From TrEMBL:
InterPro entries: Sugar_P_trans_dom, TPT_transporter
Pfam families per record: TPT
Compartment list: Membrane
Membrane topology: Multi-pass membrane protein
Name of protein: UDP-galactose/UDP-glucose transporter 7 isoform X2
Domain of life, source organism: Eukaryota
Lineage: Eukaryota, Viridiplantae, Streptophyta, Embryophyta, Tracheophyta
């Protein structure tokens, strides 16, 4: 009975983490797109998000609102690759949003499970089931068909999105490994990630010449109340998204996080056709997006069934052992 109660509590925690990440992730795509339609300096936006996250967690720790531990240089060194891949993922994702409409952006990002599975094979996690393999193939085919019907095709935007998929895969795998091995909480990993990101991002926006012009444009834009609202939303949601993503990956797994990303994409794709514009509807494009979404839902169902059967088997084996 105790085992079943623990399993139920764990299920509720897993569900909460997954739902929180899904909602935050869906909102963040539209908020970032809205900001970038008025403010094209994506690297400066990312730097501001990371800087605000670092300062808020630091202040929260000093005021006793969080139990996150202070900076440990050995841990920081170990988490440096996580920070690098995270920032590379977000930087390329933001760059792609400047040229790719939201439905196609989400369709391309649905290729992340394929990349995670391939990475898992190389890391010795074994081969996926037939259902998982077929669903991933269907998802990839949908992207190809949708791209052929995308009249607003932007080579730079597509390239940035595909590179973002690679970095997101590496990032998710490393977060899962780091959270499990180091016993760090989601807030602590988020703090290390932001803390380690700021110097690198500051150097990058200066080296590329984006700064200080981007700051001047930001101050000029801040007189617009509507822009100021979405900018603040972007900074706040950046923190929420980071926290829920780390939480979902630690409580569940990197694969679960990608599944949630696929499922929330169903709603985001639908809303993407009517919100913020930039989408030219074509039969081939819509067909590809439907196939891509169907593949994503099938993939998520297959992984859920797989995880459910493993949980039932584990509980049964433990109870049998106790008898």
């Amino acid at each position: 009975m105790e085992i079943r109660a623990d399993a139920e509590t764990s299920s509720y925690s897993s569900l909460f983490a997954a739902l929180s990440y899904g909602i935050a992730s869906m909102a963040m795509v539209f908020i970032n797109k809205a900001v970038l339609m008025q403010y094209a300096h994506s690297m400066t936006l990312l730097t501001l998000q990371q800087l605000v996250t670092t300062l808020l967690i630091h202040i929260g720790r000093n005021m006793g609102y969080t139990r996150a531990r202070g900076v440990d240089m050995a841990t920081a060194k170990q988490l440096l690759p996580v920070s690098f891949f995270y920032n590379a993922n977000v930087a390329f994702a933001l760059a792609s949003l400047k040229g790719v409409n939201i439905p196609m952006y989400i369709a391309i990002k649905r290729l992340t499970p394929l990349a995670v599975l391939i990475a898992g094979c190389f890391l010795g996690k074994g081969r996926p089931s037939t259902q998982v393999t077929l669903s991933v193939i269907l998802t990839a085919a949908g992207v190809l068909i949708a791209a052929l019907g995308d009249f607003s095709f932007d080579l730079f935007g597509y390239s940035m999105a595909f590179i973002s998929v690679f970095f997101q895969t590496m990032y998710l795998v490393l977060v899962e490994k780091s959270g499990a091995e180091n016993g760090l909480s989601s807030v602590e990993i988020m703090f290390y990630n932001s803390f380690l990101s700021v110097p690198f991002l500051m150097f990058l926006i200066i080296a590329t010449g984006e700064f200080p012009n981007s700051l001047s444009v930001l101050f000029a834009k801040s007189y617009s109340f509507s822009f100021l609202v979405i900018l603040i939303l972007s900074l706040v949601m950046g923190i929420v998204l980071n926290y829920t993503m780390f939480l979902c990956t630690i409580v569940n797994s990197a694969l679960t996080t990608t599944i949630v990303g696929v499922l929330k994409g169903v709603g985001s794709t639908t809303l993407g056709f009517v919100l913020l514009g930039g989408v030219q509807v074509h039969a081939l494009n819509v067909t590809g997006l439907v196939i891509n979404t169907a593949g994503g839902v099938w993939y998520s169902f297959a992984k859920y069934q797989q995880k459910k059967s493993k949980t039932v088997k584990l509980v049964t084996d433990v109870e049998a052992h106790r008898k």
